[in-house]
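Here we describe the complex-level prediction in full. Unlike the single-chain runs in Section 2.1, the two entities below were treated as one system.
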Amino acid sequence: MTSPESSPALSKGRSLTRTVSSKTIFSNVMTGLVVTCAILALIPLVALLYYVITKGIVRISPQLFTQLPPPPFPRDHPQFNSGGFGNAVVGTFMTVGIASLISIPFGILASIYLSEFARDTKLANAINFLTNVLSGVPSIVMGVFAYGLIVVKTRSYSAVAAGVAIAVLMLPTIVRTSTEALESVPNNLRQASVGLGASSYQTVLRVILPAAIPAIITGIILAIARAAGETAPVLFTALFNNFWNWDPWRPTATLAVLVYNYAITPFANWQELAWAAALVLVTMVLVANILARWIVRRR
Amino acid sequence: MAPAVERNTGMSYERTQTSRVVDNGFKWLTWLFGVGIGVTLLAIALQVAIDAWPAIQKFGIFDFITVARWNPVEDIYGAWTQIYGTLITSFIALLIAVPIGVGVAIILSEDFLPERLRQPLVFMVELLAAIPSVVYGLWGMFVLAPLLQGPMTWLHQNFGWIPLFSTPPTGRGIYIASLVLAIMILPIISSISRDSLASVNPALRQAAYGLGATRWETLIQVIIPTAISGIIGGVMLALGRAMGETMAVTMLIGNSPRPSPSLFAQGSTISALLANQFAEASGLQVAALMYAALILFVLTLIVNVLAEYIVKKVEIKKL
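The structure predicted for the assembly as a whole is:
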């Protein structure tokens, strides 16, 4: 099949083909591997969302948000589908509300210091470092902290104790996103404001903060959504409550603890309520993330 | 400009006394809250250490760490089972999550996928990080555990002579807690690795292409080695997260008081111990639990400070 004249050219062609193809095989294998990685990463998300939605949706109804948890019933009991977790919804709002009241002003004021008054100083770098360290402290340790600080002293589990634990948890997120938001406000706004004779607090409160507010709100939304699903710091600070409770100094039910408490029981109607509460939590997280993306994109 | 004019107008530019006081007050207020972050961190350490003090005095450091006995009835405490469980679950989770996370990072930082597919992928991986831990636990208990029962029983029956598979699997155990942990820390590894891969100087890539390297040769010989410290920093952060992760592990690990070499055996972690016992503890048990929390705090602190240090060094180098 080879004539003498064409053989050198052909062999050269062949050797060229061979090196290229071994490289191509290697590339294809590696590309296949990373695509497999991406698929492997997505399987749990899809599976989790699928089960939370299909198992949670059977119990979603208005009564879920207005009624108290039912006693445990067997599957064939006429009242199997009765009850809800209205008290846990209220309790979640209460604990996260208290946490927001503490952490949002705290975080924004700290970030104003970091971005407006101390940017690139040694102290600011140290505070940034400590913020990152704080965000790495396990959430259950926040619960232990709030237990020692408040539960022991007031001799009662309470929404306030849980609120403090969650506030410490939210703080690093709010500081980081707010500092980033403030720092990305262009400098000519600051110069213009000072040039017009504004003092530094006027500049910050009337010019810089309004300009950065969409990004700050994005950070707050994400922090709140994350906080509402946090269970570990609430477990032994707010504890749980089977009844309505409006007093922030008494034990309080939350959705997150309800999922845990009811999941580990053998009672089918409580397990169903746990799935429904999980669906509520996941929906909140989803909506918050989409909302945050939307705000960022609109800017 | 004549000096006289300057002096005249100068007066009107000067701030009033109250304006200056308000200005300074505001500055000090923000300073107070900025420093307050450090104070908060210190307060956590102090509060936990002080409450743990009775147990520290009674059991010392070495005994508490190396003895595997947690006995509230006799009030004798040693946390080796929990410390071992914390380390082994985090380690296995890293073994699973690091290759997959870095793979995801590569696919997100290169142009394998069109932009229209890449954006949703980024969003979905981020979502994985946002789902509450307790929901992972619920899913693990009712969906993943029954699903894994068959294959794991097969492993035990055929490879039971290996210590790792030496006990019959149940729905709870170290293997399933580690697997769910791996899913939970994957987003941290992939997002930080992606950032460090994406911030490698493009000139390096062009130079490698110019020398005739293929995309994968460039990635393996140039891009990944350049970005490696950022990737390691991300892995360290993930390790810190895995060690402190509570709810999913508590629901899945089985909470056994005894350490076992088998992955199918039930175990415990420091955080699971705290979640299980804190609400019903009293007296010395509370102090012992605080002591365990302090150990967890110190462990994660070391890992996180190291991670911070590595990541920071990378950022400085890139500037």
